[in-house]
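Usage

Read records sequentially. Each one opens with the input sequence:
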Amino acid sequence: YSVSLTQTKAGTRLFQTLIGPEEDNPNFKAGVPRGIGPVVSASGVVDAGLVDVVVYSGPTATAVVEWLGHAKAGNGYVGDKIEVMIYPEDAYGNRIDYHVFPRDGLGVAVDVNAVGTDVFTLTRLTDTSRPGPATYHFYGEYVPTEAGKYTFTVHFNAQDGTYETVGKLQTMDIAASTASVETSVVSGDGVAKAKTGVLSWFRVELFDRGGNAAGRGEYIAPQDKPYLPQHPGEVPTVVEARLVPFGKEYGQGKVASVHYGEEHDVYIGSYNATESGRSSLVVLLYGKQIKMGTDYLGTDVTVGDASTGACTATGESIGVGKVPVVAGSKTSVTVHARDVFGNVLTSGGSVFDLLARPASKTGDGDADDPTQWTVDDASSVYISPPELEDRGDGTYVSEFEPTVAGTYLAFVTRGGSAIEGSPFLFTVVPGTISAPNCTLECVVGEESDCPLRSNAAMVGREAKFHVVARDAHGNVNERPADTRPIDGDTFYYRAMGAGNYAKWQVAPEVGTAPGRYLATLNTTTAGKMEIRVTLGDELVKNVETSIAPGPVSPAHCEATFPSDSYVPDSPKATAGVTHAVTIVTRDEYENRLIDSLGSIPEIYADAVAVPSFNGSVALVPVTDASDGTYNAEFNLKQVGGWKIDAKFDADGAFNRVNLSVVAGGLG
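and closes with the structure output:
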């Protein structure tokens, strides 16, 4: 007999060969073994005809694939372990034991971004949990190093040599892993250089350790979290940055503004540098500093454009610790161009204006505070220094020699706007007293008695004038004596006039009017006078003047007649003949008046010894000669003794003059 049997289920099979017929055949006694052949099974029954047959799996025809973890989800990150379990089977669904068919070329192909290939690492695992030969399955793992689209294909080689795939392709989106400070890149113009006051830009591209673009960098692999500087549980800041001047700590740096740019998938940073010099652009990723390239030596921050309100001015004569300028001496103002943060510019190109206007103090505060002063619009004096010269190094200088003493507000402007601290107080003090420039002036309010004006001062009254100490530019030297240059400020004055009047004296300074020195004189003799003033032994001025007579004194006035009418001590006039008489006015010191009195005196001829007439005859008209004399004519008919009398507005009686009227010739 020839028997063939095809098995489809792998494992151990028990075969029994029997002599027929079937068990219910009555030709056989019950219990009589009917097996053919020796016992080759584990049954141990003699002549049972039992045979244990091992059925091995056929060649690999397919496989059961179980994707695990990230692979099952279809997405993951670079560095994540992609896992798979593969259970190869033959055409009847039996797990493969690789006994008869030991090789099938089973593997997992990896396609990376459609441009690269790789393979899984497979580990063969043994399964003895089932009866029969041990079967084998595979554990596969793969760690992606590149972000992108992955396709996984399970394949094997069929017995006929064809390349077979199992099931549908498995795809995964692999994103970058934790961004790394080693591979992330900081670039842009704002890395190597910047300008104060001008926005500087940089960009931060995040990459993981494998160089994959990490985008926002929001993903942090679990294995990386323990190494971040933030406290446990904190959500780390992805990217932050500061511009830190050399020698300073990170916390002292200028905070940069950082935001994520969706369009280019990079972080965009900007900062506005406030301090010139060398700085470091420190960019932190999760709190750790991104390593810059080896060619990065720091950020060179230059000074930006000039900001008018931040520019400053210096000079000995302005600002804190200012020193007054002596009139006629050279001084200077230097403007320092600065950016909005106060950094000094080192190049030129700006235009500044300087103008000083006289000021008056209107506030009650400190006299050194410019805000307590306002421009004196009533004054026409101002200082217009030369144009500020651009030195090309960020400074602008004007040198000038102010000559007019006073307090000024110095305005420094750029384009009409004031620089920091402008206006500045600026004081010009008088220089050394200069004799040729000193002046003699009437005392204010007493000009009517000023001896510097001819015939203004009168005899018998004190006449005053001031010697005004001035420097070479005409400024009154009002500085206290202990602050003046040692130049000798002693003024001497000498007055010599008619009647042998002479006076020589030192002119004392007027306590209430610094810089003014008082000179006085008093004479009783009218006429010319010479006044000479010196500063030490240096001539200040010679003045030729005149002292006027005093008020009319009637008692000292007199009447005079033409010489032909006079007989010593007994003037005579002829009756019926017209004669002239002149009244000469004098003051109480016998000085003849030289000008009109303002009112014409009345002149009379009083009869004192005239027979049959006792009265007065008014002489009219009386004419004013405008030289202190008054003229009149008379023609008396009565002979006898007469007296000439004059009446003035001034108090006092005129000293009457005797006159004899005699008869004329026979008619």
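Summary fields computed downstream for this record:
- The mean pLDDT is 89.
- Residues 574 and 665 are 9 Å apart (CA to CA).
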